[in-house]
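Incident log, support desk, overnight shift.

02:14 A customer reports that sequence design results differ from what the structure should imply. Their input is reproduced verbatim below. On-call engineer (initials T.W.) acknowledged and began investigating.
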């Protein structure tokens, strides 16, 4: 066989194959086929020994030149393919800065917490300080010190969550009154937000757990007029400047006299509608003048000081403000509803 013409054939074939390479793998395959360890040209080079000594040098030179040529053609093609690949990725990953961005969803406070903060702010503006008390209370603070008689129905196992050893999940925020008065001398002006617990069967207006805000003002000459004036401001700030209020006599063991505060109906303004059950009024909170027996329990001189207290249900206020008829709506965490409030 004529090595030179065979080499020329390999050169042509390799050059042609290189031109049709579409990927790095193709290039590698061509390299292996012609100049790899068992490649066609490599095998040919091994046959140099068979060439007559006079021609060997020249033939060897020619074969090596072809090998170099194929090598550089391969390198060139490899480069072209790499560049094309890079261009392709760049083109694919281009960012279109004119496309509208994705909306960032920002969290916000739950409506119950929003109202709670709003109410606290109103009282802070009137000179009250916000403090907190524990959710696990002594039965003494929750009932006895608040003048609940031993036979009072809300002490019943069916109304309260007892946790043993004289402790109960507070059924209202009023035990905080006892803690505050035991820890400081009058004047006292505090609001106490917090979670409360009752063994109620959940329905449209009851939950086993809910928020209250307690208010307490004790000084040397606090009167029912102060209570009324304070709550009138609260009602107007939270429900709007046109809001009217009225006291309805009521009973709580720890206040005397006791009352419930009503506001003029937010829907009909007092004319009578479905929301206010035709009465024109909506019940919003319980209140009264601190009972002398409570002052005795905390060690205050009940002849020297007087005070008022009130307690409101935060979810109830939120429901009135947002027009929600079922308290459970506030705990279902339906984002469609929460975002609309
Ligand atoms: N603690 C009462 C309740 O939970 C509300 C209240 C507080 C009433 C303070 C009078 C004074 O219903």
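02:41 Re-run completed on a clean worker. Output:
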């Amino acid at each position: 066989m004529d090595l030179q013409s065979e080499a020329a054939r390999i050169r042509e074939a390799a050059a042609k194959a290189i031109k049709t390479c579409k990927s790095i793998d193709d290039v590698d395959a061509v390299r292996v086929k012609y100049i790899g360890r068992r490649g066609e040209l490599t095998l040919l080079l091994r046959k140099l020994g068979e060439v007559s000594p006079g021609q060997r040098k020249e033939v060897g030179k020619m074969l090596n030149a072809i090998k170099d040529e194929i090598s550089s053609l391969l390198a060139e093609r490899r480069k072209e393919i790499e560049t094309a690949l890079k261009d392709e990725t760049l083109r694919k990953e281009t960012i279109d800065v004119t496309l509208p961005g994705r909306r960032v969803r920002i969290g916000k406070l739950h409506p119950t917490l929003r109202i709670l903060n709003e109410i606290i702010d109103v009282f802070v503006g009137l000179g009250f300080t916000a403090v907190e008390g524990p959710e696990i209370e002594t039965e003494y603070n929750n009932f006895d010190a608040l003048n609940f008689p031993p036979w009072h129905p809300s002490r019943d196992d069916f109304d309260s969550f007892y946790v043993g050893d004289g402790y109960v999940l507070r059924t209202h925020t009023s035990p905080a009154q006892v803690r505050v008065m035991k820890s400081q001398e009058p004047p006292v002006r505090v609001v106490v937000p917090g979670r409360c617990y009752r063994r109620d069967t959940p329905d449209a207006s009851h939950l086993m757990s809910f928020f209250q805000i307690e208010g307490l003002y004790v000084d040397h000459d606090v009167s029912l007029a102060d209570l009324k004036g304070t709550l009138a401001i609260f009602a107007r700030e939270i429900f709007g400047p046109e809001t009217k209020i009225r006291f309805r006599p009521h009973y709580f063991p720890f206040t005397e006299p006791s009352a419930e505060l009503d506001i003029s109906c937010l829907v009909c303004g007092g004319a009578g509608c479905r929301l206010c059950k035709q009465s024109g009024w909506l019940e919003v909170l319980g209140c009264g003048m601190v009972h002398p027996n409570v002052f005795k329990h905390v060690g205050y001189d009940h002849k020297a000081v007087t005070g008022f207290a009130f307690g409101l249900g935060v979810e109830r206020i939120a429901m009135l403000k947002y027009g929600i008829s079922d308290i459970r709506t506030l705990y279902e965490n339906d984002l469609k509803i929460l975002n609309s409030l």
